[in-house]
Specification:
This protein has about 250 residues and is an all-alpha fold. It is about 65% helix and about 0% strand. It has nine helices and no strands. Helix 3 (about 60-85) packs antiparallel against helix 6. The chain is globular. The protein starts with a helix and ends with a helix.
Length: about 250
């Protein structure tokens, strides 16, 4: 089949199942998508690793350690697929400083920064346990929306990995909500949580990308996107509003 006939096949819901039947343009976009996920998970894991010792109790320490471990595991699962396309995964893991962060008051918007492909939100530093919990809640709810979209990608092996990962990422957000519920029981904790929400909300929102994106149209034709950024952002905002209301925030 020609590239054009494959694109037509994908645009109508077709699936690809191995590197051998993937055309060059599709391969490039697919690897970009996988790299963004892997880099974001590795950066998130590195960030949460630094918060383990900030946790206020054993249960919280276990939750932070679990999130750190499982995000690294999720990255490794997608890296295995990337290796089937010739990516040197052992070298890949050591290329970028995953724990590196920009200044707290930097404004990256939705732009990539540095040499890796992580979402911009993972370039900002965490400042203590409450800040880490709040970020985990907001980004965890965003990941739930994003993984529902990624689970439909037209490269079937990757879609299957994302579907397997999704329940664990959902649990990460749930652990965050449980922790936040404890934090807001005190006035001091509530005030700190509200300040962190105000900080992280626009940074997490930026991770959904531009609301009018020509790139979305291109990826849609390849079966790598199905819902526009604006729709996903609106779903996240609605879910976040409900979650915060339940906590009286």
């Amino acid at each position: 089949m020609t590239d054009m006939s494959i694109e037509d096949y994908l645009a109508h819901g077709g699936k690809l199942t191995s590197p051998g039947n993937v055309p060059a343009r599709y391969r490039g976009e697919l690897l970009r998508l996988m790299a963004s996920f892997v880099d974001s998970e590795l950066a998130a894991s590195a960030g949460f690793a630094d918060t383990i010792n900030d946790a206020p109790g054993i249960k919280s320490r276990i939750a932070a350690a679990r999130i750190t471990l499982e995000k690294a595991d999720h990255a490794e699962r997608v890296l295995r697929l990337m290796s089937e396309f010739g990516v040197d995964t052992e070298r890949y893991e050591d290329v970028h400083p995953w724990a590196a962060r920009v200044a707290r008051d930097a404004d990256l918007g939705a732009q990539r920064h540095g040499g890796d492909m992580r979402l911009s939100v993972f370039h900002y530093p965490l400042t203590g346990w409450i800040d880490a919990v709040v970020m985990n809640v907001l980004q965890g709810l965003a990941a739930k929306v994003q993984l529902a979209e990624l689970s439909q990608v037209s490269y079937q092996p990757l879609a299957e990995v994302f579907r397997a990962i999704a329940p664990t990422e959902t649990r990460h957000a749930e652990l965050g909500v449980e922790g936040l519920a404890q934090i807001v029981q005190s006035e001091e904790g509530r005030a700190a949580a509200e300040a962190s929400i105000a900080y992280w909300r626009p940074h997490v929102a930026a991770g959904f990308g531009a609301t009018n994106s020509a790139r979305y149209e291109r990826l849609s034709r390849l079966g790598l996107r199905h819902r526009p950024n604006a729709a996903m952002l609106a779903e996240w905002e609605a879910t976040l509003a409900t979650t915060l209301a339940d906590l009286s925030l």
